[in-house]
Fold this protein.
Amino acid sequence: MKKNYFYYLCFCAFALLFSTALWAQKASITGVITDINKEPLPGVTVRIENSATNALTGATTDLDGKYEILGLEKGEYVLTFSYIGYITEIRTANVNQGAIQKLDISLNEDNKLLNEVVVVGYGTQRKRELVGNVAKIEAKDIVPTVGGTFDAALQGKAAGVQVVQNSGAAGAGTVVRIRGIGSVSSGGDPLYVVDGMPITQDYFLNGESNGANNNPLNSINPNDIESIEVLKDAAAAAIYGSRGANGVILITTKRGKGSTGKPQFTFRSAWGLSEPTKVLPLLNAQEWLQILQEAWENDGGVGRAPLPQNLTYEQIEGINTNWYDYVLQTGVKQEYNIGMQQGNQKLRTYIGLGYSDSESFLKNNSFQRISGRANVDWNPVSRLQVSVSTSLARGLNRRVAEAWAGGLGMAQTSALPIYPVYSGDFAGAPDTNAYFNLYGNPVAQSELQRNRVVEWRSLSNLSLTYKFTDRWDLTVAGLYDYMNLGNYTHEQQLWTGTYDIAKGSKKRTYNYLAQAYTNYDVPLNNDKHSLKLMLGTEYQGRNGDALDMEFRDLRGQIYESPEQGEAFDTTKYELNDRLVDKWIFLSGFGRINYAFNNKWLVQGVLRYDGSSKFGPNNRFGLFPSIGFGYIMSEESFLKDSETVNFLKFKASFGLTGNADINWTEQFATFRYTQTGYNGQPFRYQDHIENPDLRWENVRTFDAGFEVGLWDDRLTLDASYYNRTTLDAILNAALQATTGIENANLSYFVNIGKIRNTGVELGLVTHNVVGAFRWTTRINAAHNKNEVLSVGTATPDALDGGFGDTRAVVGYPVNTNYLVLFSHVDPATGRPVYLDKDGNETFVYDVVNNRQPAGDANPRWVGGITNTFSYKGFSLNCLFNFSAGGKVYDDAAKPQLGVVTDWNMRREVINRWQEPGDITNVPRLTTTMLNWGGNANFGKTTTRYGSKMPRSCASEP
Amino acid sequence: MKHLSYWLLCLFIGALSACSDDFLEVKPDDAVPIDSVLSTPQQAQEFLNGAYDALRNKGFMGGNAWILSDMMADNIQGYNLGGDWLAHYTWTTDIFLGTTRDLLFNGSKTISRGNFLLKNLDNIDGLSDADKNRMRGEVLFLRGLSMFELVRFFGQPYGYTADNSHPGIAIRTEYSRDTLNRSSVGDVYAQAIADLSEAANTLPTENGVFATSWAAKAYLAKVYFQMNDFAKAYQYADEVINGSGATLETDLTNRFGEGKSNETIFELVSTDLGNNSGGGLRDYYWIGPGATIAAAQLSQDIYGLATADPNDLRGQLWYKPIEGGAALLTQCTKFGYTTAINVPLAHLSELKLIRAEAAAELQNPIALQDLNDLRIRAGVQPIGNGTSFSDLITLIRAERRLELVAEGNRLHDLKRQAVRDLPNLKIRGIAPWDCPGMVCQLPDNELRGNPNMEPNPAGGCY
């Protein structure tokens, strides 16, 4: 929906190093360390490996790449030069008494991605030893969208991770799906874990106000993120048990680093513009009037067609309002970030402060974020590390109505080009500022209705890690995620028709977690074997409450300063304090990694989850996985290959769960109403009990290989998966005649079966290396989704999500379920439909003739990132794609078919006008009755959608 | 935090499974054991009130059940109708209409809330036998009434097939989420009669604003009349007219308004405009501020008949032509709109019309007297003695339409008459009374819960 221009300015890195000590009589080693382009490398660690007699064992290079090791005795020294991202070099130096030995070297960049360390949940693993499928995205690879959230930045970055932005509005939610959709009636979002904490992430926590939901990830500043790991298969995600089935996104924030203790500061600012790339072409006043007249005459009308709103043709003379001008704008986005990183052996600190303000292309719509983060690691003694992380963020989202709720949606529909903004604009009308057509007037709506969402978010944790030995450690941690989401609206009296009403709704969520886990690297006598164990337990609870306030006739005072509201006279407002969310997870988990000869790998994972969300008959679930790996490049026949430097095969199988179900679903509940029939109180049961409800089990098989060619100039990884949801939660419909009042007349039952199979490809090529570098990263994923069983449910019982999509056996979850439109009859101009057997008919029969009509899921999703760098400047170009996936255009119903008091799409210009016309837009009419019963022409339209946004960003 | 320390304890003991299920027992405030909400007589009464509250919902007897019957027949003007209403007006309902969803669901809620109470009625402490019987009678009354009202919309009329084996609605006499198929119309009527008969035997003759044995008998008269069972219809109507103590209002304007009318046998009560059982009627027929016309207008056909005799008070009181509109529009002014109104579901005027027509069918001369009682009250000339019974039937049917306009009878009356003696009847001169679209489509909220549910066929009326 939007286009972003990025201009990145970056002022980086101040580090001052002083070393003033003088060492008489002693020898020293000094030198300059550069990269292969002869650019100095600051911060390289230089260590003397054989300094049994010396207390001083190393140094770090300064800003000019210089290092100096003083106070050495005569002798031979082995020095190692190491720097993250570069291949470690080892040199030997002979020094004489009192001499200064010069040793300059250049370090080569390490392209071997396979040596990366990845976060896997309760620990880290080297990428070469992984048997699970984990995609890692590093901070530097996140092409920042100004003022955006990190989930939007994930788009196109990892194979099989599909990111869809719901709308281009500022602060609006995105939908992230990993390896397709495995659920119908429960949530499909991955689990987000920030520094070990599964965070509060419900998109609808704030309800769906004004046609848009809220993005709970808004308050995480992407600039604070060090890396994002996506756990995709069961081998990787089973460690998160009943919550791992939709994949897990692990977010690791930046921490302090360095060895000198000197702080390094970074400052980053960015700005961009936001404008709509495409608007729906609509009719202007003259065209609309012509269409109306033709429809009127087609229906047998004589004379000029009556105008809506009892308008006369004289009044509207000269009016041709382009309502887009009143709702769209070019939005400005800006962002500023300051970061500080410092560290030595004892204390390491990261501090990040950020401010961003983004306007969208919708007038009056913006999102502003102020955030701060401090991460401190402290080693009071070498065996103990105390880590404290805390963040505080405030998001301010000024919102406007969208879609069906108005705003742009209204400008495209009920705001006709023949309507003026103000009644005074009519020809010959007395001057007045009264809005014309109040409830169909986007200007009136935006001026009389205000909405802002203020979100306070704090994520904190305290963790203690004690190393009993080099091979055994224990971590105990407490984590806390607090969210306070206030939604404030103000509607003026003219809009409400009753009072000037200000409303506030504060939702507070307290999410807390305590965990303890231990890692043990079992010492074995034989070097060929390696065995690592991890065992842990965790407790997580979440409470949420809400406070709703409504104030009348306070002229919106409450809107800007809601805190005052509670002090007002109680006769002016209504308060409603309620519990909205409360649940507990209790878990035990473990992981075993065994390697033989550094070549054969086996991993077993087990998690045992109990949750208050599950019905009493199914309180606890067990989630195992097993994975195997074989590093063929370790075999003698490949070890010396000049082509293949790495080759690994892996396969895994396991069970994960999806526990994203409503916490109240299992209970029988009753409703009490104070004043009902005859003014008396009444009661009824508003939900029946459902004690069998539990998580969804997802069985995943994953197989793949990773290969590195020509010293990792080209790396490719490919995987196949089969992910079957065995007992998908379906919304079993209750018959209306049961009279049972469960919401939507349904209850959840674990009976569905859904399969996702797919392939994922990831390719990295270093096309040009040297001073100028060009790297290409390509990923692509294909997913096939099929509903295998829905029990006895009928398609209409299984809403596939939005619109008219359904879950139908043999088809993907998001299948449009519609009466098919065939063509417009050239003789009569009437729409011709297809019945279930494919026969043409004028009859539009929703009971018998609806059928699966097009898959809303994309066939391929992926991204291509090209990175060009030269002497410290880099340019990142991301091109992401999503091919296939049909979009059901619900709004076409009233905009292509019957002429009503809505504006129509320009396609209507090509309508049927006389016998013989071949077109897809039928004969115009003003009443549905002329279409054969209650036919809704547009209800059958499907369109082919393909989205290819691009963005580029550069930074030094 | 209490949970947290418990978890730490468990951690030290070292066995998660030792932490029993009740540790994971976290409940919402409204998830309470049944005996904490339904164990006292007051609470039982509150559950019963819930059934009445569903009965008077705008989707059911407080609105849709009335308006849709007149709309699908010939008492409502098509102009200005849109959406769901237009579908009813044109006999082209589909399965996605809010009107039929609300009608079926609120009727079913009335039944299920009653069934829920019935299931638990033996567990109420201190409930006297008299109260228990009364509550049981009220539940059965509401169930019989609701089944009767619903089956008239969702099934072809009684008598459509000789053995009434054509599909009606699912009969639910127990509170359960189980799927059920449709029962035959014959079985639904039999169940409704059984429930109403038992209610008539169980209910007291006085019961405040709630159902009495008279109410049950009045409904039995309505049910039998709909079945063209004139002997039974006569018997129950006669019993209620003579015994209930209700008297015919001499002033027509007293039939509808705030408070109880003298002719009421059972009604949906209102306490004020904010708690108005007639709110649905107000929504349909009232011209609210800022509007120029009401959502639904009365047809020119009925307006012509009501004003054919200029002395007819009904034509004068209940119709208001709207000046200067695009079409000839007539507002229905039968109901009060500035105040709350009670909605009578059984009243003396209707019972007299039932008795009159049943009597004429049975060749009983009381038919003429009942007819003339209403004619005289309306200010029109009484019918003379010596009119044949078959002419009387025609006259009574015409009177019935005038008297009960906008009270939700018309469609059902036309179908009943067609079954009785007008097999070629066409509604509004267009649509055969037994065409598929003359029955509302079962809405999706009924179909989707049961894959074996037999849907009603669509359209086919013209």
